[in-house]
Each structure stands twice: as structure tokens, then as C-alpha cells.
Amino acid sequence: MSHQQDIARLLQGRSFIELSARERAHSLLDAGSCRELAGPFERLYSPWLSAQGIVTQADDGVVICKGLLDGQPAVIAAIEGSFQGGSLGEVGGAKLASALELAAADNRQGIPTRGVILFETGGVRLQEANLGLAAIAEIHAAIADLTRYQPVIGIIAGTVGCFGGMSIAAGLCSYLIVTREARLGLNGPQVIEQEAGVAEYDSRNRPFIWSLTGGEQRQACALADALLEDDSTLIRQQLLQFMARGLPEQPRHRRSRHYLERLLAMDSAAQADADSARQLFHSGEKP
Amino acid sequence: MSQPTISQRGRDWFHALCGSTPLQKGLPPSLLVADGELAGQPARYVAVVADPHNPFVRARHGEVGLLEGWALAAAIDAAVHADQQETDKRAIVAIIDVPSQAYGRREEAYGIHQALAAAAAAYASARLAGHPVIGLIVGKAMSGAFLAHGYQANRLLALDDAGVMVHAMGKQAAARITLRSVDELETLAASIAPMAYDIASYASLGLLWQLLKVNQPDQPTPADVQRVRSALADALHDIQADPQRGLQQRLHGEHRQATRKVRELLQGQWAENAG
Amino acid sequence: MEKLHLHYPAGAPAAQAVLVGVVASGDLEVLIAPAAAGSCHIVIHSAADGSAARWRAQLDRLFADGQAAAMQMEINDFGATPGVVSLRLAQALEELSA
């Protein structure tokens, strides 16, 4: 993709969701600054998928782009949701973990590299099960390390959403940007229905699923920080704003005492809905 | 729908290792936390166990749910906070026997991913702050539950036993999701190491620091406890002798060649045209 | 999974590397890298078993005349229809000459 195309896209205010992972990364970085690392022509195919007779993708579904955001050094890790449901295997997981680790190492050497993760993922790739899980633990470790120096910003645009071990990674980010098409949850609807029954979780009831885990609800519950229209320009602007804001005073995951108290005080016998969730997250807040 | 059986292993090993050390108060009954010692040094032992009266019904079999995630975070953060001024930070020993994360409507609605993130973050922060963090797998270490409780440890140890299992998804569920029969899944797992369910295959991935043979994993004998205690002490000393606080020690397994190749390549390209 | 190698005569080396598409359901990924003058080598991984004859026919039409640039082409196909295949190949060759 040429820089002229980058600029043209930004001026048009195009859909972000429609872009591929690679295009998303290009559209966010400063024009002309994007450099892809460990890219498709390195042919880092998943050794485990091909061993199972499954067609592989040359980048294993993870795109790492280094460049500038508002003139500041940054790395964007973008997950391609349309390849194997955005699942993370050994290769893609290693790319993501390693990129964030290198960003943290930069900071220890005085280079203030920021991290951005574009989530579009069902979590662990089951065909690479334990190596996917291990890589996700390493991604968690890398985010925890990098957020000691710089904000790590997650973007969940849709339409795959962000699930499994990667929803935990989203929960470690300093800021989360979502759209209405985004979903964020630990367990995929199908798995919950299988484990707990259709009365507990009806995976085919889309309004129900979105009312609990959709971007709008997550933002209303302060589990995400910005709810945006599906627009590349707006998303980039918000990303730059969060970058400029620096590290949050108290990240969500540091409020354990607060949430523990709220959860213990609530009526856990009653089944949950969107309203009870909003009440939980807003109870005890300062007006 | 599946009805998980309740494992006692986490509880039994916790008590075997902590003895009569009093439990920390103010935590949900599904979380056992005690400050004991390891190799003569202070150590905080942590286990998630089944609470049949858990107010969240989908977390009554030892699953890591909303309360467990946030309470783990609180218990670990408290140790980090208490040792802030200490040069020698207390060790944290996670005793791992977790069948899964909790699957339920309340869990998703109330942000279980965030609760588990809090726990993972607390363990990772403790490790980065210099606390030696050791994960001891005595039973199941499944998926999100393991990510929240133990996978951030400097060193992972596991009992060498058929009841010990690390995986991303239980066999039945994985078969359904990948549209395979359990038999097909097992055949595949026999040749694809990361898909296998046995602990020896898991060990071949290089993620474990040590695999420990004991006589009675379910009701540990004094000799078993001694064996595990001494392995934990070895792990503690190994961590203390290691200048690195990351998870680099896990990257050397025979089945992680692709990981190493990707990491080398990325590192090599990272600094090109820097500035 | 079907794996297929095809060789064609070709002209001067391709001027650049090109990537189009994605290994998504009903779609495919095409990678083109420059190769030594005169050689066009195509590797196809296809999820569609028994599709070799179709691939050969479709690629013969494009490359048998030896007029294309010298390249190493890789196709990773996740069940694309012949229509989608044509579209992606046209897109890749267009970007190659852009």
C-alpha cells in the first residue's frame, strides 16, 4: 500500500472494520512511517496447522508494524480476524509477545516506544492448544511489563470481537477503544451454552449477546474507555489522545478491593442482565 | 452440559505445604492464602479451591470466577505492597488445581475477563517487582483459569501424574468446537504435541521447569511433601540466581522451534533503520 | 489439502513483491516475489481436494504464453470459487505492474 493511499483513506473517513489487519495498522500509523516486521514474505507459516492438513497464511494472522504515532515511536500488533477466527497459535503468538517485549526493552534504553494491539480474536487456536495458551501468557507478561513505562492501547473494532485468553490481554491494556460492532468477553457464546446450557446462555440470541458483551455495554460499564463510530479517522484521533494522556492513574485491573466488595454486596442469586451489570459497575462510584 | 467432579488436590497440597499456618482472613472461601516459609524464607501460598456455597453458582467446583479473579489480585497485590520496602521479597507459591474458568451469564455480564486480567496482572507485577513466583501444578491447569492463577510464574513445576493436565480446552468441548469426535481428537493429539492432554507431552513444550514424581498425588505422604518442598526450594534458589524476571526460561523446548525463529527474526529487524 | 507445483516460462524478473487476499473462508491469499529471469514457479495449497485440474487450467490461461514477469508465486486457498480466484489473481498481477 502506498503512502498516498494511506493519506487518501484518512481523508475519506473510511470504515475501519472493513480493513484487513495490515490495512488497519497502516491506517493508524503516521503516513509513510509504517514498517512491517516478520512480514508475510518471511513465510512464517504455522507448522502445526499444515501438519493437520489445514491451509496456512504467510503471516499466521498477526501483523507487526513499527512506525510513528504523532511523531512518537510505536508498534502496532494487528490480528487478522478472518484467518482462523483470529486465533493465536505459536507463530502469531510469538510475534505479538516478542513485539511488545521489544517495545518494553526500547523503553529501558530510553526509547519511548508505545504499544497498540488490534484485537480481533477468539483466543487460543485449538489446533495449537498449549502453545497458543503459552504464547498468550507471554503476551500478558509483555503487556504487564510495557505498561510500566508506556500506555498500551487496545482497539476492538469488530466483527470477530475479543475472547478467550486475549480478552484477559484486553483487560491488561491501559485504554480500550471499542465500536458498537465489538464484543468483549472471556468465553465465546457457544462454549458457554455447551458448558452451562441454553437457559444460561443462548448463543443464537444476538441481541442478548450484544446487550451483555457488546461495545456499547462494555463502555457503559467502564470496561472500555471509548465507544466510537466505525471510522478510521475517529479511531486514530482517539488513539492519539490516549497516547498523549499517558499511563492511567489507576488501571481497571488495579481496583480489586473495590470490585470484590461490590460483587460480594450484590444479589448474585438473581440472573444478570445489562442493567444489573451497569448498576454493579457504577455503584460506589463518586458522583 | 457437563457436571465437573470436584478435586481436593489443591486443598490437600495447600495444607500439606502450609501446615498449621493460619489462613488470611477477609477473602472468599474459594481462595486459600497463607504466609508460611520456603527454604527458611517467607513465602505466600495461594490456592483456588471449590466452595460449594460460592455465591456465584457457576463457580462452585473450583473454577476461577469473578470473586476468585479479583480476590487473587487482592491477595497478591497485598504481598507486593507489604514488601515494597524490602530488598528480599517474599516468594509466592501458586498451588494450581483449577478445572476451568467459570462459564456463565453473570460471569460475562460482570466482566470475568477483567477479574482474570487483574489476577494475571497481579502475578506479573509481583514477578517484575522481584518476588520469586512459583507455580506448582498438582491437578488441572486449564485455559483461562491457569492464565489467571499460575501461568505468570517465574518457574512452573508439575506433578508427573495422569491427573495432572494443562490445556486450552477440555477434550469434549474442544472436540465439539473443532467439529471432531473425541477419538479423532485423541488420534490427532498423539502426533501434535501442543494438542496432547498428557503432562509428558506438555513437558516436551519446554514450559515446565521440573516434572515431579510423587507416590500419592491425591493424599501426599510425608515423603511426597518433602520431595515437593525441596523442589520448590530449588526453584526458589534458581529464580534468585537468575537476573531475568521475565518468562525467557520457557523458550527452549524442543517443540518451540518456530517461537525461537520468529523471536530471532523480529529482534533482528526491530532496530533496522531505527530513529 | 491439495498441494500443487506449476512451472511456466516467463520474461524479466518481477519489479516488486505483492500480497493480496486473506486465507478466509471462500477466499485466498496470493504472494508474488521476484524470481530469476525466465522462470515462473507457482505453489498452490488448496483446501479443495481434487482441484488440481481446475487450478492447472486456470493458471495455464494466464501464464502458459510465457509473457508474465519472472516470479515465485504462492497461493493459499481456503475454498475460493473460480470467480474469486480470477479476481484475486487479476488484482495481484495488476498490483505487480503498478
UniProtKB/TrEMBL annotation, chain A:
Gene3D superfamilies: 2-enoyl-CoA Hydratase, Chain A, domain 1
Domain CoA carboxyltransferase N-terminal: 1-197
TM ranges: 152-178
Pfam families: Carboxyl_trans
GO MF term set: acetyl-CoA carboxylase activity; carboxy-lyase activity; transferase activity
UniProt keyword 4Fe-4S, yes or no: no
GO biological process per UniProt: carbohydrate metabolic process; fatty acid biosynthetic process; malonyl-CoA biosynthetic process
Keyword set, alphabetical order: Membrane, Transferase, Transmembrane, Transmembrane helix
InterPro entries found in the cross-reference section: AcCoA_carboxyl_beta, ClpP/crotonase-like_dom_sf, COA_CT_N, Malonate_beta
Alphabetical list of NCBIfam families matching this protein: malonate_beta (TIGR03133), PRK07189.1 (NF005530)
The protein's name: Biotin-independent malonate decarboxylase subunit beta
Classification lineage: Bacteria, Pseudomonadati, Pseudomonadota, Betaproteobacteria, Neisseriales
From TrEMBL, chain B:
Record keywords: Lyase
InterPro entries: ClpP/crotonase-like_dom_sf, COA_CT_C, Malonate_gamma
Residues covered by the CoA carboxyltransferase C-terminal domain: 1-272
Membrane as UniProt keyword: no
Keyword Lyase attributed: yes
Pfam families with a match to the protein in the record: MdcE
Enzyme Commission number: 4.1.1.88
Name of this protein: Biotin-independent malonate decarboxylase subunit gamma
Gene: mdcE
Automatic annotation (TrEMBL), chain C:
Post-translational note: Covalently binds the prosthetic group of malonate decarboxylase.
Compartmental location: Cytoplasm
Protein keywords: Cytoplasm, Phosphoprotein
A GO-annotated cellular component: cytoplasm
List of residues that carry O-(phosphoribosyl dephospho-coenzyme A)serine: 25
InterPro entries: Mal_deCO2ase/Cit_lyase_ACP, Malonate_deCO2ase_dsu
Membrane spanning residue stretches: none
Listed name of the protein: Malonate decarboxylase acyl carrier protein
Source organism (scientific name): Aquitalea aquatica
